[in-house]
Amino acid sequence: MRLPFAWFAAVLLAGVLARAGGLPANYLAADEIKRGMTGYGLSVFQGSKVERFEVEVLGVLRNAMPKQDIIICRMSGAGLEKTGVIAGMSGSPVYLKVGDGHKLAGAVAYGWGFPKEPVCGFTPIENMYAALLSPAAEKKGDKAEARLDAPFAIGQRTIADVAVGGQQPSWDRLAAGAATLYRLQTPLCVSGLTEPAFELARKELEPLGLFPVQGGGASSDDPEKVKLEPGAALAIRMAEGDVEMSGVGTCTDVLGDAVLAFGHPMMGEGRVCVPMATASVQYCFPSQMRSFKLAGALKTVGRLTADMQAAVVGKLGEPPPMIPVEARLVRADMQGEEVYRCRVFDHPRLTSRIVGMFLFNALLVRGELPRENTLRLKATIHLAKRPPIVVENVYAGLASSGSLFGALNDVIQPLGALGLNEFGSVPVERVTADLQVAAEAALARVEAVRLERNEVRPGDTVRAIATLRPHKKEPVLQVLELKLPDDFPAGSASVMVCDAAMAERLDRAEAPHQFVARDLDHLVEILRRQVSQRGLCIRMKLPDRGVAMRSIELPSLPASMLPVIASSRTTGLTLTGKSISASVETPFVVSGNHALPLTVRPKERP
Q1: What pLDDT does residue 8 have?
Q2: What is the pTM of this model?
Q3: Strand, helix or coil at 524?
């Protein structure tokens, strides 16, 4: 795709100025910012109207982070005396008075815990500007330690020392005249999620610096009339459709078709390619603990291209493609089929998690599931230029919806593995899922197992009779057969009858190299493998032992060699084993494992 000339011009100008140690004429270098300077900031507090608030510089924390200062200032106006600094103001541009005019000095990015005054920290614009390039230009005069230029007052306390951290401030340090600035969290405005799905989103995404809040629906603003400009609300679109999910901050500056925003990382991903949109603020929610903006995305206008320490960088123009997701639901307590659709941004770490939240949410849109339930799931991950990955299985539980979320891991894990694989890009074209929920638990446990014969010979068939106890039903018998090889060694042996989960664990333990991808095609092949939850397995271990490294195996090694070469600490090799096995399909999701002794007599001579 041919990039517009304005983009190359902006990047070229940035490179020239960085090498020359200069900034655009309307930018103010951090070294020129002094205590007592005044000015104003811009942000949106309602709708899409950019409003002005006043600022006064209280101090400068030099070298707060490598090659970066933080400017501490007091804000006033626009209701900030009541709310304090607001999550979602990240990126609000700050202009300081210089001579007869004002220059862009930086963007609001840091705050305090439980503030009584609207005091914040802002990131210098020169660091944000350097984020257009990578690596950032060297900054002269860097010190080894962070230092505050002079004490300043917050309320009745004098602050002599400021630290920068990711956690809430320490009250012991505050009492001693010290305080902690922390990065403002990014409100993740969510609509369309049920309460259980929202709690899942909060659990998954809060550790990444996102702050999920319910809301962010439709707006009265005309999306076509709202533009990205300094102080405008900006959204990073993660999902749209029946579920909306957008991280909200503020635009700091627009240079041609390049956009600077946030003043801190969103998630610190480096180079990215995710949708960027205009946004409308419905309400600024005041809180003693953490005030935040409730907002919603309007129109996608480009893409986020970098998620750096000092800023996020966007590019206006063609947005990146999103992945369509569709869930078709049939429940025993509702009539007919319902279909839910959304589009999810393509992200190595988060796409799989958000798809999981969407499917979990689809299960619960019509209310909590019956306490006893069985889910029949068929999900298809459609890949570009490759056959799809199809997940088809049955899951049952006795604890309502919570018992079924584990089933969705069979969809989440392949998507996550594709996104984070080491071999190359695997474009996902779409994800579709059929969900059928019955109001009974098709569960059974293996109550007992007996062998038809306790003594066999090589070449014989071992017959095991398992007693299955279905949930709230009478026991049923299940016969399993396993034919021994003609060269099976005589002696004592063990027969294992086990559920599907145990069989898979044993397979991975005996042949770990088979689950380590050699290349992209092999990875997709591994992800296509399935283990039926309704399967019951019979297996016997063979004496054959070997070693493997990644996907290469040396089987059937002499016993004397194994202790020498199979130490993972010295050689990096892993021991492998072999078993013979067979399985049968049952009407139930089976659980339980039994091991029985068996004697193998020598083969009869003719």
Answers
A1: 46
A2: 0.83
A3: helix
